Amino acid sequence: MAFNRYQNGHDFRHVAEGRLDGFAGHTCGEVRGLSYIIACVFPADFRKPVEIYGVLGIFGPNMLASHGKDWKRQRRIVGSSFSERSNALVFEESVRQMEGLLRCWASLERNSRDEMGIADVAPWMANVALHVICGAGFGVPQTWPGEDEEVLG
After folding, report:
1. How many Å separate Cα 16 from the centre of its chain?
2. What is the Cα–Cα distance from 9 to 20, expressed in whole angstroms?
3. Structure confidence by residue, pLDDT tens digits, 86-112
4. Cys-Cys crosslink for 33: which of 7, 28, 48, 77, Cβ 3.0 to 4.6 Å?
């Protein structure tokens, strides 16, 4: 791993240049430096593989399935949905849902608060996602089995 120093009017910290499983890896201790590296020094290394997101294009143009100018346009359209206030709301609802899920799991047969065994967490995580979307996105918080609605406030 080589350490280089890039300068373009800014003092950049060390940048580690390397690859892991075909993906470029660069580290930088300064945001302005990292932005410069991504945009100017190694832009091809940071190009999103939009071809793997092609299936999402069925829903129409979106941030995941676009790159470059198209991505900027999509970001501008949905940008207000990703404000600090919205992110905080999603985070708080995610924590509340995970705490409720852990209480639900603890109440299952052969489980306790200290030891839990769940054979397949995928359906539970799908429900976490739906619960967070309902609570943070639509203002309709959900509860887990055995959970009293008083936890909703």
Report:
1. 24
2. 30
3. 999 999 999 999 999 999 999 999 998
4. 28
